[in-house]
Amino acid sequence: MRIGGYVPCSLSDFPGRIAAVVFTQGCNWRCPWCHNTALVYPEQFTPPIPEADIFQKLAARRGKLDGVVISGGEPTLHPDLPDFIRRIRALGFQVKLDTNGSRPGVVRSLIADGLLDFVATDIKAPWPRYAEAAGLPAPAFDTDALRETLALLRETGTEHQLRTTRWPGLGEADEPLIEAIAAGSPHVWQEYREPT
Description:
The chain is α/β, with parallel strands linked by helices. The chain has one domain (about 5-190): TIM Barrel (Alpha-Beta Barrel). The protein is about 30% helix and about 20% strand. Strand 2, helix 1 and strand 3 form a beta-alpha-beta unit. The radius of gyration is 16 Å and the shape is globular.
């Protein structure tokens, strides 16, 4: 795993739990309003934090934390994600995955293997504006993967939350369209923060 950041304790990232947050490097999207650009663009990457350091810190936090959030970047791009989660769970922690929803096959496998306790996925825009929100060329962008991830979370009963950031350019007319996409799932609106 390419780990670009670590927060030892968060009261807001894993609903109802006290958690550490691990940030992976690399993302398959280029959201123009992303606030974690140092985790997205390879030229901005810092040297990765060794996994051994992360597990040493997590082991020292047993009894103080309920879980670990794996965020990014986009964690599902990392082929060693399942093994990384298994090691976290072996320490007794619950696991929350933050994902953009673009890789439903990975999410399906993680759920089927009992590795996830919670999944958070962004609903970045109404479907017709999704390519713009993800910073990708519209003809090459397909929302089918996202739709599959959302259906998967609902069908499996996996505890989850959908989030929408009010990024510059997202208008009032977009809100009911986003609410319609999120219908049937817990959904929260987040305020935009300037990129770091």
